[in-house]
Structures are given as C-alpha cells and as structure tokens.
Amino acid sequence: MWSAGKVRTQPANRPLFSHDIKIETWDLKVPFVISRRRCDTTDVLVLTLRQDDVIGRGEAAGVNYKGETPHTMRAELEAFFAAHQGPLTRDLIAQEMPAGGARNALDCALWDLETKQTGQSIFDLAGFTPAPVETAFTLSLDTPAAMALAAENATSRLLKLKLAGDNPLACVAAVHQARRDAKIIVDANEALTFDQLQELALRLAALNVHLIEQPLPRGQDDVLAGFKSPVPVCADESCMTAADVPRLAALYDVVNIKLDKCGGLTAAIELVEKAEAAGLGLMVGCMLGTSLAMAPAMVIAPRCRFVDLDGPLLLASDRDNGLVIEKGTIAPPTPALWG
Q1: 236: which DSSP letter?
Q2: Helix axes 168-178, 144-153, angle to 10 degrees
C-alpha cells in the first residue's frame, strides 16, 4: 500500500537538504476548556524541509499531557538533524525518534516533500482514496446552559461535548434539548470514575450519544474488560501507537488516532491497519492546530467511523489555502496546503 520513501540524494559537494523550524501562536475564537486545562491560544511547531527549490511542511502541537511543547519538540528535531545528515527515510525516522509531536512534524514534512518532488498526490503515494468527511465540532466544558447555546450556534450535525466529573448528564441533556438533530460524542478526558461511567452510559443512548471518549484515566482502564456499554467506548489518551492495540481490543470498541500521539502519518497508517485487524472501530482526532496539522489526518479520515478534525474551526484565523469546511463537511486538502 505504501513504502518508506526517502529524499533523493544530492551531489557530494552540496547539502542534502535544509530545514527550518518555527514556533507560532494562534488565537482561538473562544477559550478551549476541558477537564484538565483551559487555553485562549495554541502554540504549534512548523517544520519546513527544503531540497533544491522544493519544500515540504509539517505541523505539530505535541502531546501536552506527556510534557511535550513546541520548544521540547524543536530541541528533539535539532538533535535529530545534528545526528543525521544523510538521506531521510520514514523507517529511519521511526527507528530514531520516539512517537510524538516532533516525529509527526518530520514524518509529515517528508511525505509533503515527496509529493512535490514526484508530482503525485498524497493519496496516490499512501494508497488511500480521498473523500470529503463529516467532522465533529467541539463544545468546550461549561455550564449546561452555555453548552446548549454553543450547540444552537454550531452548524455541524456532529457535536463533541467536553465533560468533567461534575454533573456531566445535565450538560448532555441540555445540548440534546437544544439540538435534537445532532449526533453527540462525549469526551471526559479521563475525568470519570468507573461507577460514574456505568451510571452515565445507561442514560446516554437516549440522548443521541453515539460515542463515549476516554472516560477513565489512562492506565486505570482495565476495569473496562467485560463491561458492556450501551454506547461504544473509545480510547484516546489510552491509545498512543499500534503497539497498544492488543491490550485495547479487550477494553474498548473504538480507538482515536491522532498523528501527534502516534508520531506521524506513517504510524497512523500502521495503527489503522492493526486496529482494523483487531476488530476495533476507528476515530481520527486532532490537537489544537491549523489546517496544516489536519491535512495529513485527512488521508486516513475516510476509513474512520468518527472524524474530529475541527481544529481550524476553533481558531480566530487559519492558514492560506486552508481546508474547506462547510457545515461540518471537510474537503480533501489541496497541494497548495499540503500533499
């Protein structure tokens, strides 16, 4: 389906490639609030690879709950480039860098560079079929009344509600009352207990909830073995890479694939294949970021039952040539953006 491509070699008297790393800050439309943090802006790292007059780009926000920041990712990338001056391959990147945001930025920049050098689309190179997809729109954690108002103002038909351990059912009920046409995903970001989950799950199906995302803390979810939830349960923080699949298959119904977690598009493709083989449903998600971060995830999005790539919709502005998103439907990226 896909191969570990590489940047073509240069004459011996010329540098193989150059790179540029920038850290950018993007304002959000409204504060983003989940069970463990609140933010008004998001910082992202943008890596540009250049060979001759051809460039490839990748963007990453990093995995904040693992301690990653754009600054730690920049240090990781600079150390990698100092140690590796020869041809870049996706196999080399996977072997030499841990899964995370830095590897994601480099892996995606390499894919983008290869598309520009070969004239092929990212979908042709990766062996996937492009298609528009419906994305969830995220409602930040707030009071039931405020979340209901946000739901009324959202144009998407798929809403993702951030919840906490305090009175989560009231928030879901308020949103359902405000938007009876909407399908709902609830995401507790590890904030619930197993007792809360058992009680809540019984009531959510009647409120048009289609997925419960990461209800329990990572590493404390073994209690899900044998739990028969009336609403599918999805692993997010518990699902980092394809290596997690054997354990998760006994606990969850769905896994949320994020390129920052698994370390790039190459690792995401592996995770798709391993999860499907294990009988797990697929979701593709994102960290806060621009269309440049969402574009690589659009490669695997048509294979996923649930899509949550609303990062650009949460920003006050987006990049030039950004993804086209109309009433919650995202069109595939154009080469002017990525791939």
Answers
A1: S
A2: 30
Give per-residue burial for 53-78: e unless 16+ CB within 10 Å, then b. Answer: ebbbbbbbbbbbeeebbbebbbebbe
Which residue spans within 14-111 are E strands per DSSP?
18-33, 38-51, 54-60
For residue 223, which amino acid is it? V
Return the structure tokens found at 126.
Answer: 């990766």
- The CA distance from 181 to 131, in Å, is 24
Torsional sign, CA 240, 302, 46, 37: negative
d(CA 112, CA 55): 8
The strand pairing partners of 183, in sequence order, are: 158
Position 102, amino acid: A
pLDDT tens digits along 240-276: 999 999 999 999 999 999 999 999 999 999 999 999 9
Contact criterion met (CB below 8 Å) for 269 and 126 = yes
116, 108 Cβ separation under 8 angstroms = no
pLDDT in tens, 153-209: 999 999 999 998 888 999 999 999 999 999 999 999 999 999 999 999 989 989 999
